């Protein structure tokens, strides 16, 4: 990675911090600029770090990020756009999943698999069950039919399953990586931060209001998107 790209990282995090301040101090006009700008800079940084390459995997990564940007914009609009924003993030997660599955498949082709690999898969499935249980216990309302329309509750459940799937697959990708690098830890860390961010948002929106929760939502979200970008770039051999 060139020094110029590393300097760009400082610019990205500078906008992150400015957006967190805008959220914390309710600078609404500034937030309307910094929120989409943060994701735009993450996308540009991703392309620059990859040497402006247009490989298929990188294009999928950028598409996932673009749908995240679309979700950011839609969630700034009135509440009737909420499902559209949720849908945009859902498509982005599906693209992340396609990238993870692709990389896991290629890693297995290179390294093969063993009985130990099957035990890892079993452990990951147990972790997935635990993550889903936490979703239903912490995020889901006790009586969804009484607190929200069924039309809204169903896509939220789908979103929870997909988001938890990103986290689980990111752990598998880290375990089965053809070449070990500690920088690959950014993949599961990013996916976990995304899960925390959306869980906080859902808990605040559908269960109980939390003071200043949006600051934590945005902090974990921005760090999640950047960590995922870094992790995928490491996996693809760009950094």
In short:
The protein is built from nine helices and no strands. With 239 residues, it is mainly alpha-helical.
Which helices and strands appear, and what pairs or packs with what?
Layout: H1 3-24, H2 28-49, H3 56-75, H4 82-111, H5 115-139, H6 144-147, H7 150-175, H8 186-206, H9 213-236
Helix pairs in contact: 1-2, 1-9, 2-3, 2-9, 3-4, 3-9, 4-7, 5-7, 7-8, 8-9
Order of helices and strands: HHHHHHHHH
Can you tell me the number of structural domains?
1
Low-confidence stretches: none
Q: What's the count of strands?
A: 0
Distance between the termini: 6 Å
Radius of gyration: 18 Å
Number of helices: 9
Q: What is the helix fraction of residues, given as a range?
A: over 70%
Share of β-strand residues? under 5%
Global structural class: mainly alpha
The global form is globular
Mean pLDDT, all residues: 87
Largest sheet: none
Name the features.
9 helices; 239 residues; mainly alpha; globular; 81% helix
Structure report:
The chain is mainly α and 239 residues long. The protein has one domain (3-236). 81% of the residues lie in helices and 0% in strands. The chain is built from nine helices and no strands. The chain starts with a helix and ends with a helix. The model has no long low-confidence stretch (mean pLDDT 87).
């Amino acid at each position: 990675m060139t020094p110029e790209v590393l300097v760009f990282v400082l610019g990205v995090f500078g906008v992150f911090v400015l957006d967190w301040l805008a959220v914390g101090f309710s600078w609404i006009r500034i937030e309307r600029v910094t929120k989409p700008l943060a994701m735009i800079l993450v996308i540009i940084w991703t392309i620059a770090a990859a040497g402006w390459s247009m490989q298929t995997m990188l294009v999928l990564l950028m598409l996932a990020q673009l749908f995240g940007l679309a979700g950011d914009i839609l969630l700034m609009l009135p509440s009737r756009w909420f499902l559209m924003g949720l849908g945009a993030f859902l498509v982005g997660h599906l693209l992340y999943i396609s990238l993870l599955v692709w990389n896991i498949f290629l890693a297995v082709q290179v390294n093969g698999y063993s009985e130990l690999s099957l035990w890892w898969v079993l452990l990951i499935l147990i972790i997935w069950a635990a993550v889903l249980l936490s979703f239903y216990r912490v995020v889901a309302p006790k009586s969804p039919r009484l607190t929200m329309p069924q039309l809204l509750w169903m896509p939220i459940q789908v979103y929870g399953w997909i988001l938890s799937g990103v986290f689980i697959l990111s752990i598998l990708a880290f375990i089965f990586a053809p070449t070990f690098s500690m920088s690959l830890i950014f993949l599961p860390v990013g996916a976990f931060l995304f899960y925390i961010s959306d869980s906080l948002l859902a808990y605040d929106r559908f269960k109980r209001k939390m003071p200043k929760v949006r600051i934590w939502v945005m902090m974990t979200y921005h760090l999640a998107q950047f960590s995922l970008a870094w992790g995928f770039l490491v996996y693809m051999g760009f950094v």
